[in-house]
Amino acid sequence: MTSLTPQDTLRLARFALDHADEAAFWMDDRGSILYANAAACRALGYASEELLKAALPDVSPELTPELWSQLTQEVTSRGRFAFEFSMRSKDQRVFSVDMSVHHHPLPGKDILCAFFRDMDERKRLQQLKNEFVSTVSHELRTPMTIIRESVSQLLDGLLGEVPPPQREALYVTLSGIDRLARIINDLLDVSKMEAGKATLHLDRLNLAELIREVVETFASRARERGLELRMSLPARDILLYADYDRLTRVFTNLVGNALKFSDKGSVEISVRERPQEIECVVSDSGIGIAKQDLGRVFNKFEQLSLPAVTGEKGSGLGLSICKGIVELHQGRIWAESEPGRGSSFIFTLPRKSGEDLFRQKMSGDLARAAAAGGHVTGVLLQVDVLKNADPRKAATHLEWALAELMETVKTHGARKTDFILMDSHAVWLGLPGMTNKEAARIVGLILAAYAAVLDKNELGDLVRVTHSLSSFPDEVKNEKEFMNKLLQEKQRNAV
Amino acid sequence: MPSEKWSLLLVDDEPLVVQLVAARLKSQGYGVLTAPNGQEADALLQKNKFHLVLCDAVMPVLDGPGLCRRVRARGDATPFLFLTAKGLPHDIVEVLSAGADDYLVKPFDAGELLARIKAILRRIYPS
Fold this sequence. Notes:
The complex is a heterodimer. By secondary structure, chain A is of the alpha+beta class. Chain A has helices at 6-19, 38-44, 48-52, 56-59, 65-78, 119-155, 164-194, 207-224, 244-260, 318-328, 354-372, 394-413, 436-456, 479-494, and strands spanning 23-27, 33-36, 80-88, 94-106, 109-118, 202-206, 228-232, 239-243, 266-273, 277-284, 333-338, 342-350, 376-385, 419-422, 426-432, 463-472. In chain A, a hairpin with a 5-residue loop joins strand 3 and strand 4. Chain B has helices spanning 15-27, 38-47, 64-73, 89-97, 110-124, and strands spanning 7-11, 31-35, 52-56, 80-84, 102-105. At the A-B interface, helix 6 and helix 7 of A face helix 1 of B.
């Protein structure tokens, strides 16, 4: 075996660092750069000698003395600190990086070793991939149209009689084309979710009702297959915020699979309510999934070697789509199974109030605005039924008034609004990129239109709407102040 | 009204799609004229009266939504049925807001195409 001297090891370490793809540099405790590897020089556009004369603030636009002292404190106490950061190259291009900084004390000096990776590059590649998927999918549709229509014309006898054996082959071709079309649709769906471009349309919905509708659509298929399709739901409504169409898709995919892989027994949808979340289970008495396959079922195009008992072949993307949708709702999904006895697919949906969801959305918008120097305005429109209304009709009035307010908002503010959510008493609006003045103008339009709606329905004296606005950075400096301003006005107005 | 009385304009830049869809429409007795892009379709629309335009979305020179907007801008209400390869919600919103009456995503079923054509004609031209 070849043996290495300490000098050899040092030279090799240096060689390896200079040939690594990850950018690395070393700093002293004041941020002066002591070494930068080739990848760091490339990323920042400087020659090595230039970087050795520089300090971290020279290559980072956002590094304030406060941030530097916070960083050094974290690194020395924890040994390592990882964060999202922005860097500036020699040609003044600002780009975001994933950076991790490690503390390495040497006798008499504190050294910080930093590694970073260009995130914009990764995002660009992801975007490129998604655009590619989208383009290819669209390009495939034209030739598919041609094939499908030619085959249909043969089958419809437009081009003369076709004898039965040939007809059979043409039917197979047609079903293959239709399957291809389903794969393309699913692929576009997954690609959109992966790109983070899929937005949820959250509505307050009754989960029990959604499940009953899904069961109804599958009732005849279950009957044909001699399977029992059951529900086990709490007796009362299960209210939560979710995207109705997407959540229906999750149940449809799971129940469809359960029926496909069962040839006897039953399929059951059950719901368990927990304090923090709602757990939904779709279980079957089918062939089950081997233990080693359980983790793979949510992967794209992962069709296990199990033969489907019946029905059309899927796209191989159904469970990836379920996973994408559940995760968009910030839930979890997993599978449990006993081969030969059946499988259960379980997913959770967090229980959140309208305020929670709004806060969460604004938190992201505020962080982005803070980093990029932008504006964010939040609006809370609250509806109250006044005391002079007939108390027996108050609940109906409130429900009606809220639904009308939501409609008015959608008509007059939807184009500028990134987030609209209705809860039991109020409508929350998120307006990223908008100043207080611009938002106030839109709120004015909404309120004027809403006053007209109330008057037309002779409810102007019974229903009151109050509003509050909170704008970053003109009025408030952080998330806490942002929410406080909205909620305090809500309190004050409610008195 | 028997379908021979209906005249349709089919606009698509893909010759095979034009050939096949035109053959299907003619087999049902519709009168069909065709154009390979929005520009030529627009010229035909200014000279002739069509009962319905079947229109691709993405085409060179002048695309489907562009054609539809131009036609609507001069007050022509000829119904448009889009046959589009782009089926995402924002694509559909784009063609509908350009003035389309209905759309089908490619690849479509011929039976559904014919049913939609009938439905539009029935709606736009009662009796």
